[in-house]
Write a structure and sequence with these properties.
The protein is mainly alpha-helical. 75% of the residues lie in helices and 6% in strands. The longest helix is centred in the middle third of the chain and has 32 residues, at 68-99. The chain is globular.
């Protein structure tokens, strides 16, 4: 399964990498279609957002640990729920990593952003249709630390001692701080636009589901 230990964790064999990809896509699909009915427009628009955020992450790769996916995952979770947020997080991670650097660490990054999406769904970031920017800013900083901790787990080996793990976390702290500061910039720059987009998408889906229920149709 593992060929060597790289800078971001174990290097997977081609078979293990393919199995990882299949697993992540399957989990994302299960979360996407699970729960309430999902209409085609929601799936199409959310897929477009996945591509857009993955492309933005790739473009910002020269900036160390500046991660636009974090704020996006928070907002998708806040507007469309934890299931859709996790699906978005997994697909955005997988797509961008296929273009940047894909491996064992992709699993942990997807898990980290999935947790961030769940946080977004539970943090009351949208109240009475209004985006709570100050709350979003605070949660985005906390989310950077959560993501940093989860993604660091990809480097843990059976031989690592607790003290070595603490040192590893300390080494990653400057990058987590940069991540948090980048999140604050994204909150100001793109959060209002994403809120408008996702609010319209959520309202359209609710209307479509309501019509489907009235007429006995699947949305």
């Amino acid at each position: 399964m593992f060929q060597a230990l790289g800078a971001h964790g174990p290097v997977l064999t081609p078979l293990a990498s393919a199995l990882l990809d299949i697993t992540l896509v399957s989990v994302a699909f299960a979360f996407f279609v699970g729960g309430s009915r999902t209409n085609r427009m929601t799936m199409g628009m959310l897929a477009t957002m996945v591509v857009a955020m993955a492309a933005l992450r790739v473009l910002m790769q020269p900036l160390p640990n500046v991660q636009p996916v974090t704020v996006a995952a928070l907002l998708v979770g806040a507007h469309l729920g934890a299931r859709r947020g996790v699906a978005f997080a997994i697909l955005a991670t997988l797509l961008s990593n296929l273009l940047i650097s894909h491996g064992w660490w992709t699993l942990f990054q997807a898990a980290g952003w999935g947790i961030v999406a769940v946080i977004g769904a539970r943090a009351n970031l949208v109240q009475n249709g209004q985006l709570q920017l100050q709350r979003l800013a605070l949660v985005s900083v906390v989310s950077a630390m959560v993501f940093g901790f989860v993604s660091t787990l990809s480097l843990v080996t059976s031989a690592m001692t607790p003290s070595a793990f603490i040192v590893l976390l300390g080494q990653g702290l400057p990058f987590d701080v940069v991540h948090a500061l980048g999140n604050l910039v994204f909150v100001v720059w793109m959060a209002p636009s994403l809120h408008h987009f996702l609010s319209g998408l959520a309202a359209s889906e609710n209307e479509s589901l309501a019509v489907g229920e009235v007429h006995g149709l699947d949305a």
